[in-house]
Amino acid sequence: MNFVADGYEFAPATPDDFPLLARWLEQDHVRRWWGDPDAELAEVARIFGDPSMEALIVSHDGRPFAHQQSWDPTLWPEYPLQDQPPGTRGIDQFIGEPDMLGRGHGTRFIGAFARHLLAQGVPRW
Question: Where are the alpha helices (DSSP H) in the chain?
Fold first, then answer.
C-alpha cells in the first residue's frame, strides 16, 4: 500500500525496481552494512512472496532514494526479539542515493515510517 508521511512516499517495491535496488546495493556505503549485492537482491525478491514481510521504495520530492523493509520478528526463531508482543515489526532500511546521505533524510523517513506503523496499531517497532 502506498502512503505519504512527512513528505516521504512509501510504495511497495516491485520487480520493476530490481535495477534500482541492484544499483543501490552496489554502493559502497550500502554494501558495507548489507553485504553481497546479489545475495541481498535475491532476499528482496524472496520478500515479494512472503506476506509477513514488506519491501518498500522511499521517495522524496518524487525521487526514489531509499529502501525500507518491515517484517514480523516473531516468525524468525533465531532472531532475539521473540519476547515482543504480537504485531511487533522489525525494520531495516538504507539510503541508496549517495547525495541524499548526511542530510537528515534517514532520521526523518524512519520516524515517519515508525509513526505510520504505530498509527496502524503496531505495538512496537
Answer: 18-26, 28-34, 37-47, 105-119
